């Protein structure tokens, strides 16, 4: 059985003592173990701060961007091999594995391009300089410089490749060394990627370290120049915010957590139209891609009250085409959830939603899984629920079932009512609105935008080229307010700000121009 190792202080380290076992979620076969017992976390931090940090800060944005480009090419070159790890440990179909791995190298490539755009400088100007007095000599300016600490990344189980890469891309381009810690249950893919990067000798010593197993003392060592970026449950996010680094030393923290993302069908959308087909395709894709284990998946579906039956029937027909089973089989379109605990959580979550909603498609316990051996595997059918009278505080607005589950609910046909209902989710990563009615779109989009990090607009003119709401792009912000964690990632150069200190400079204009590298 494979033993996953950590990569710290320039060496591979194999943990001692008690370990965690990783399994194949389709067969429940043990495939690897991981442990961090005996790992010297202080040495890991010191290596990042004293070796990795200075090496990165000595480079320009262009040079750091070339590091990211090399990483992107290395991952792309091994993508077929990496697909196998994603299917074996993540329960991913080949399509799901591509979604994760192609997102990883694609994000690195996008930030490599940003590095080339920022060019041969180490200072990032924030806006234009400002004349501070009567004399044109006295000026002020804001600049960003990399923090002189460590970027600690704690990633979720559902995107071991993309999670590692998207956080590392922004941090490394900003000039901060990274300690990356994937969720242990699905860490095989992230481990294989780290092997590719280490074997290729692509990064300066100390720029990227990797923890396979428990965090141990990792988070206790965070200081005022360090940052912590976390993706996972809101409960864990709340716990991390109470850490001594955050509360006493001022460690910056970014949390991406639960999100009850919504899709709103406008009252003008006609049956059989391209726009209705786009809406239905997006809902079903987000319900079933990665077996619904996406932080951006659609959980709530709002349609005009008089369209409830018709829309549910459209979704029922599409969900009937989903083939659940062994993700290595070509005919299978949805694999199992990642762990036994995830399966238990999906089942208990559907039961909780059942207090206010009726299950109209699927079953939490019955599933015809293609290629299944006996009762092995963490398989579950896609499930659609119906709630005819949604109220604030209902489970559909407060509990996220992290699996192939969504609830259809009515609104009165007005933008105001749709926005009111969507806002009951308490803050989300992304929601989408489908309509060609400009007045409805204005009211609904602007009504829900304060509650979300991103809003996608589906209309007839873009139906043939629309990007699904569940796809996170490196050019746009990823994150959201409230229960979504209150954080921001990506967004092009905006993603660098978390890893840099913004400082106001004031003084002689010519001196500022020399420091900043451009005319004030």
Can you tell me the residue ranges where pLDDT is under 50 for at least 5 consecutive residues? Answer: none
CATH topology label of the largest domain: Aldehyde Dehydrogenase, Chain A, domain 1
Number of strands: 23
Question: Could you estimate the helical fraction of the residues in percent?
Answer: 25-40%
User: How does the helix and strand content classify structurally?
Assistant: alpha/beta
Give average pLDDT, whole number: 94
The CATH class of the largest domain is identified as Alpha Beta
Beta-sheet strand percentage?
A: 15-25%
Q: How many H/I helices?
A: 14
The appropriate CATH architecture of the largest domain is 3-Layer(aba) Sandwich
Global morphology: globular
Distance between the termini: 61 Å
Widest β-sheet, arrangement of strands: 16-17-18-15-14-19-20
Major beta-sheet overview? 7 strands, mixed
Give the C-alpha Rg.
24 Å
> What's the CATH H-level homologous superfamily of the largest domain?
Aldehyde Dehydrogenase, Chain A, domain 1
What count of structural domains? 2
Protein traits:
21% strand; seven-stranded mixed sheet; 14 helices; 520 residues; 2 domains; Aldehyde Dehydrogenase, Chain A, domain 1; five-stranded parallel sheet; alpha/beta
Q: Can you summarize this structure?
A:
The protein is an alpha/beta fold. It has helices at residues 41-57, 61-77, 79-90, 94-118, 160-174, 188-199, 234-241, 244-249, 274-288, 308-319, 340-353, 415-423, 438-448, 509-516; strands spanning 2-4, 6-8, 11-13, 20-23, 30-34, 124-125, 130-131, 138-146, 151-154, 178-181, 208-210, 227-231, 252-256, 261-265, 298-304, 358-361, 383-386, 405-411, 428-434, 452-458, 477-480, 487-490, 500-508.
């Amino acid at each position: 059985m494979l033993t996953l190792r950590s990569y710290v202080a320039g060496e591979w380290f194999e943990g001692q003592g008690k370990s965690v076992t990783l399994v194949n979620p389709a067969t429940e076969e043990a495939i690897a173990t991981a442990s961090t017992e005996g790992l010297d976390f202080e040495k890991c931090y010191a290596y990042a701060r004293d070796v990795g940090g200075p090496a990165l800060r000595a480079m320009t944005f262009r040079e750091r961007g070339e590091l990211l480009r090399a990483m992107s090419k290395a991952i792309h070159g091994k993508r077929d091999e990496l697909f196998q790890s994603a299917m074996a440990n993540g329960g991913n179909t080949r399509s799901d594995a591509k979604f994760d791995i192609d997102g990883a190298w694609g994000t690195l490539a996008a930030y490599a391009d940003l590095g080339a755009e920022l060019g041969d400088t180490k200072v990032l100007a924030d806006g234009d300089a400002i004349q501070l007095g009567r004399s044109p000599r006295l000026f002020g300016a804001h600049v960003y410089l990399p923090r002189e600490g460590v970027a600690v990344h704690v990633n979720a189980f559902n995107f071991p490749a993309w999670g590692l890469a998207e956080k590392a891309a922004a941090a490394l381009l900003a000039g901060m060394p990274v300690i990356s810690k994937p969720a242990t249950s699905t860490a095989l893919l992230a481990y294989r990627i780290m092997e590719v990067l280490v074997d290729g000798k692509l990064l300066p010593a100390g720029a990227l370290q990797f923890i396979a197993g428990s965090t141990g003392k990792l988070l206790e060592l965070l200081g005022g120049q360090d940052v912590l970026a976390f993706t996972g449950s809101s409960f864990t996010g709340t716990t991390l915010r109470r850490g001594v680094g955050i509360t006493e030393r001022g460690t910056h923290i970014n949390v991406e957590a639960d999100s009850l993302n919504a899709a709103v069908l406008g009252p003008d959308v006609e049956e059989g139209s391209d726009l209705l087909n786009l809406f239905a395709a997006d809902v079903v894709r987000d319900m079933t891609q990665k077996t619904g284990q996406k932080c951006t998946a659609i959980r709530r579906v709002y349609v005009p009250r008089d369209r409830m039956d018709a829309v549910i029937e459209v979704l029922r027909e599409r969900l009937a085409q989903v083939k659940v089973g062994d993700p290595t089989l070509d005919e299978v379109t949805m694999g199992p959830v990642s762990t036994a605990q995830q399966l238990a959580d999906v089942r208990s979550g559907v039961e909780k939603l059942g207090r206010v909603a009726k299950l109209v498609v699927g079953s939490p316990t019955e599933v015809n899984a293609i290629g299944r051996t006996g009762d092995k595997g963490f398989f579950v059918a896609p499930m659609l629920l119906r709630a005819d009278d949604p109220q604030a505080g209902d489970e559909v607005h407060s509990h996220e079932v992290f699996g192939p589950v969504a609830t259809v609910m009515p609104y009165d046909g007005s933008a105001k009512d749709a926005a009111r209902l969507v806002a009951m989710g308490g803050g989300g990563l992304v929601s989408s609105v489908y309509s060609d009615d400009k007045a409805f779109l204005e009211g609904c989009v602007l009504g829900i935008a304060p509650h979300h990090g991103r809003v996608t607009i589906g209309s007839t003119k873009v139906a043939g080229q629309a990007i699904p709401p569940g796809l996170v792009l490196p050019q746009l912000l990823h994150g959201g307010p409230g229960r979504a964690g209150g954080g921001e990632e990506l967004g092009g150069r905006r993603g660098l700000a978390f890893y840099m200190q913004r400082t106001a400079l004031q003084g002689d204009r010519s001196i500022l121009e020399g420091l900043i590298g451009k005319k004030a």
